[in-house]
Amino acid sequence: MAGHGAEGHPHGADRLCEAGDRLYSRAVRRGRVPRHDAEPVPCLLELALLHPDPDDMDWLVPTSPQEVMTRLLRGMHDEVSASQRRVGSAVAAVEWYAGLGRQVRPAASGAEGPAIRVLDGLARIQAAMDEATQACTTEVLTVQPGGIRREAELSEGLHRALALRGRGVRMRDLYTHVARHGQGLLTYLELMGDAVEARTLDEVIDRLILFDRTVAFIPANSERTMALELRHPAIVEYLVTVFERLWRLAIPLTAPLPDTGIEGISHREQSIAALLAEGHQDAVIAERLGISVRTCRAHIARLSETLGAASRTQLGVRIAQAGLDGAQHATTSLSVPGRESRTAR
């Protein structure tokens, strides 16, 4: 008999709160109580233990304890009956599914579980990752978006990485260029030694982990509290191809980022300029490059100053003139106020 109750009184008539117990008991003894006495305990009205006195609406009279007991017993009887019906339905359903299971032909030899499995909750995700780690014998490929990796993230997966290194498994990791500035990543790579090779890109796809090119894990929601475990050969092969193409485009972590060819414009600002030219908002650019919106806007401000742009519209024009929009320009002359005219390459 759970009532709807106010937020502070989420209970039923079978388990009154202390304040409700006191007021209802007083109402039974005295026959009625002032309405304002019930304001701190709205549960009594919502559970129909008190109701307005028809002779004086400023007073509340109690429902008799005998009637309350009858309602409680009736509610319990209804709940038991409903449970029995649910159990009967569940038994019938189990028998039906069991009959279908006997008709299913055995899977082809070598198949391991479903081709796509939804992992709901961090505990299930971690358990599946640990299982895949234990079964891995050759290679792990990962894509790690989000900029600088936090120490907690790196520590969480360190035990798996060390177990893989101990078995001679090779690992290749892709990060954004921003990750180069995180001491945690550098410490992690130092611990792993030559078992891990890392490269970086301006931006990468969402998180991806591939074990032995047979099982892959990808996020299933934006909060990353759900994941997909993929074992379908065609899907896994496609994801491997995506990784390999990104890997060829990436720059080894041990190598410096290429110079932009334009004085005063960093590689990151060149990437921001290209995304601005595509029409992306600041928040989208920040997310794709793994930086904060504040940092992104600071780079845009420096771009505007370097290119001599007084507005976002003018900045777009200057980006195109400098060849920073990703378009192929043979030679584009750009005059920046206060600087000599240069040829952007």
Please tell me about this protein's structure:
The chain has 345 residues and is an alpha+beta fold. It has helices spanning 18-30, 43-46, 65-103, 122-135, 151-156, 158-166, 183-192, 233-249, 267-277, 282-289, 293-307, 312-322, and strands at 33-34, 50-53, 56-62, 116-120, 139-144, 170-176, 196-201, 208-211, 215-219, 226-230, 251-252, 332-334, 342-344. Strands 4-10-9-8-5-6-7-11 form an 8-stranded mixed β-sheet, with helices on both faces. A hairpin with a 2-residue loop joins strand 2 (50-53) and strand 3 (56-62).
Fill in the keyword field for this structure.
345 residues, alpha+beta, eight-stranded mixed beta sheet, three-stranded antiparallel beta sheet, 12 helices, 13 strands, elongated
Q: Please give the number of β-strands.
A: 13
Overall average pLDDT: 79
What proportion of the residues is helical, as a percent range?
A: 40-55%
Biggest sheet: strands, sense, closure? 8 strands, mixed
Class computed from helices, strands and strand pairing = alpha+beta
Q: Compute the CA-based radius of gyration.
A: 33 Å
Low-confidence stretches: 1-8, 107-111, 327-345
Number of DSSP helical runs: 12
Q: How far is it from the N-terminal to the C-terminal residue, by CA?
A: 76 Å
| SSE order | HEHEEHEHEHHEHEEEEHEHHHHEE
What fraction of residues sit in β-strands? 15-25%
Lateral arrangement of strands in the main beta sheet: 4-10-9-8-5-6-7-11
Shape: elongated
